[in-house]
Predict the structure.
Amino acid sequence: MSGKHGPVPLEKYLNIHQSAMASHLKLGFVIDDGVQFDVVRSHAVYQLAGRIQCAGQLTLDVRKVLEVTGREGRVQFVQTVEYTYHAQLGKVREVFRYCGPHEEGHNDEHHVHRFDVLGSGKQLADSPTFLIHEEERPTLGEVIEELHRWHDTHGDDAARLLASFD
């Protein structure tokens, strides 16, 4: 078991997730945790998916697929094999989208798409950025912290932008 994205006991994974979400809710940036954990395929594949509502009309759509990589007695070890973290401002702009490898031959590395949220709304010219090293790939908690920092920096401008769409 190496690195922050290595296999971990399922119960430990769930405890870390619940503890992190409770912490983010307590801080007040996360308003509602709409993420659900479900069995996808006979206790061999799990999915964590849903929408996290944040301050400033920011949302984070989450989809993570975890596969059982091994067992020690009754303990299942899981590891994320697919993920997408999609941050949006209201229904009008994308902020960023982290993705695992998908579409073989096209973005078959971990990557992040970033957008000109307060300007054109289009994807930035240097996007996507490929996340080659494991330490570059964020956990869900780190993505929430990044979105929180974005809100702290751009929240007032984002509110004005949203008001212009009303």
